[in-house]
Amino acid sequence: MPVGIFRVCLLVITAIVNHPLFFPKENGTVPENTEEIIQKMKEREESLRLEQLRLEQEIADQEATQKALEKAALIVEESKEEKVRWDMWTPKRMALSDGICGLSMVFFLELWRQDFQEGNWQDIGGEEDDMAVLGKAFKGVVFPDKAVLASFYEKRILGTTGDMARMREMVEGFADDLLEALRSVCNRDADMEVEDCMGVGSMYENWRVRKPFVCDLIVPFAPPEPYCFRCQTWCSGDSFPPDEQGYGTIKVCRADEDVTGCICDKTKLGEDMLCLLHSQVNTAKPSSEMEDLLCFKNTQYLDADQVMKWFQIAVTKAWNRISHKYEFDLSFSLLDSPGALKIKFKSGKSIAFNLTPVVQYENSDVYFISHFPRSSLAADLPSSTHWFLTFAVYERRFIQLVSKTLPANACHVSCLQILSFLHGKQCSLTGPSGLTNYHLKTVMLHLLQACPSQDWAPEKLEARLQDMLKFLEKCLHEKKLYHFFIGNEKVPAELGFPIIFQRAEPLNLFRPFVLRRDIYRKMVDTFHEMLRNMSALINEYTVHIP
After folding, report:
1. Rounded CA gap, 494 and 367, in Å?
2. For 301-320, b where at least 16 C-beta lie within 10 A, e where not — what string?
3. Strands of 467-539, DSSP E
4. Which entry of 217, 273, 380, 483 is 20 to 30 Å from 187 by CA?
5. Where is the secretion signal located (predicted)?
6. Is 218 helix (H, G, I), strand (E, B) or coil?
7. CA distances from residue 439 to 210, 212, 242, 472 in whole angstroms, order as listed
8. HSE-up of residue 195 (Cα within 13 Å, Cβ side)
9. What is the per-residue pLDDT for 107?
10. Separation between Cα atoms, residue 425 and residue 478, nearest integer Å
11. Is residue 214 part of a domain?
């Protein structure tokens, strides 16, 4: 016990002795050192706070970057469409910094890049992709069932097939007689040589539904000897600007003229120089001679306007020669379409058909066409020396070839007929739009190539009609509908399609609408209105089914 008390006392004494207040002089510097330490601690605290803020900012930036990358990856996974939009937006943003004056050209080149990047072809996509693209347009739309569609097709469309066959036979017989008379009135040594006509389009593919029925006939022609046509297309290696994709030019040359081996017609030789390959007589081409060959003034290029004037005069002379054989009148029905003809019977009935001159491209069934009847495409030609190419003959052959592999009474033509009927009725209510029957046929051609043959069985009419509408809605949303043949390397070899067009870059049929927002907006509104009115339009022409 005493030992414990002693230890406690010793501890208390030691604590008292070591207290700093007992030695004030020796520890007089303690307050000063404390202030310095406090100041240093404050400075250190401030530096640490700044470092903390910097680190927090870096972490925030990294988190924002990571979130942006995750969001972009999520968008890529969810929809290919969003990926295309991001790819398009980045170059556009970069292009804006180059200057306002070059905006339109940069925008057009960017659209061209999108259309043909990496050989991109029309993306058919699966059912999930289509449903992901469909927006408010299909919400609330009630599709007619199979029974209603079958009744509508039988009542409104099927009965017109016989009328088309009789009309085709009558028009073809008269056109052959008219062209034979045209050959007799033309000068064989100076005028163009006219060949036999061919039927193309909806009347000859058996899907036209709206009256009046109009037959489209094309008439190939060639220059008199010793001249020939040398065709140049945008994909043949010649220089064509982006806005002239799909066009070509036709040069009138002498058959013995070598357009690639001699440069005497491309450079000025001088007064004291003479080409040893070509005499001055052969190289000199008076402007009047070229104009007689329907060329544009002071050029060797065939002029579409001159061709149509010549053809209209020749048809008039031919009719005057054979008019006594027929008990009807023949007249030109449209001033802006020189090949639009109308037969008028004494009973008051009439039959309309189009007779359009074309130029054959090499040895194929691709043709340069002077203008498109009932279409605004002719007004969009860069000049009268530019001709649009038509693949109508191959389109007809492709439909015939595929039809042989489809089930009996396949529904592909029925789908196109119903869609064409709905679109025509909607245009009669709200006015014409940029969407045409050719766009609808292009949609059908893409689906014919993409879908298995058994999917076109007659009992699947409803499903295939929905597929066509969904595919068209997707194309309108993306502003992309590629030409079926140009750039399509999957064209069947049996068709004998020219390889130069298969290897060409795909041609977007909706490209003209990208820069013409008013027409594009009208086209989209017409399509959406057609969807909303679809059931009413079909029920109007359908027998009531309880």
Report:
1. 19
2. bbbbbbbbebbbebbeebbe
3. none
4. 217
5. 1-20
6. strand
7. 16, 20, 21, 9
8. 12
9. 44
10. 25
11. yes
Residue 190 belongs to some domain of the structure: yes
Q: Supply φ then ψ for residue 35, to 5 degrees.
A: -65, -40
Output the pLDDT for position 236. 77
| Domain containing residue 238: CATH number | 3.30.460.90
Burial class (CB in 10 A: 0-12, 13-18, 19+), 32: exposed
Write down the H helix ranges in 364-498. 392-403, 412-430, 437-450, 461-478
Residue 334 CB-density burial (10 A; 0-12 exposed, 13-18 middle, 19+ buried): middle
Domain count, the chain: 1
| Distances from the Cα of 540 to the Cα of 15, 209, 451, 534, 536, angstroms | 111, 16, 31, 10, 6
Residue 113, pLDDT above cutoff 50: no
At position 44, the amino acid (one-letter code) is: R
DSSP-based three-state secondary structure for 344: strand
Q: Is residue 41 part of a domain?
A: no
Convert the pLDDT of each residue in 437-483 to its tens digit. 999 999 999 999 999 999 999 999 999 999 999 999 999 999 999 99
| Within a domain: 345 | yes
What pLDDT, on the 0 to 100 scale, is given for residue 335? 64
Average pLDDT over residues 242-259: 79
What contacts 327, CB < 8 A, 6 or more positions away? 345, 346
Burial label for 60, CB within 10 Å (0-12, 13-18, 19+), is: exposed
Residue type present at position 468: M
For 55, other C-beta atoms within 10 Å of its C-beta total 10
SS3 state of residue 456: helix
DSSP string, 83-117: HHHHHHHHHHHHHHTT-GGGHHHHHHHHHHHHHHG
Q: In terms of residue numbers, what domain contains 246?
A: 146-256+289-543
Phi, psi of 220 (to 5 degrees): -70, 145
pTM: 0.71
Enumerate residues 6+ apart whose C-beta is below 8 A from 140.
532
Phi-psi bin for 119: left (phi > 0), alpha (psi -120 to 50), beta?
left
Q: 478: how many CB neighbours lie within 10 A of its CB?
A: 17
Residue type at position 281 = V
Token look-up 């070229």 returns 290
pLDDT of residue 2: 56
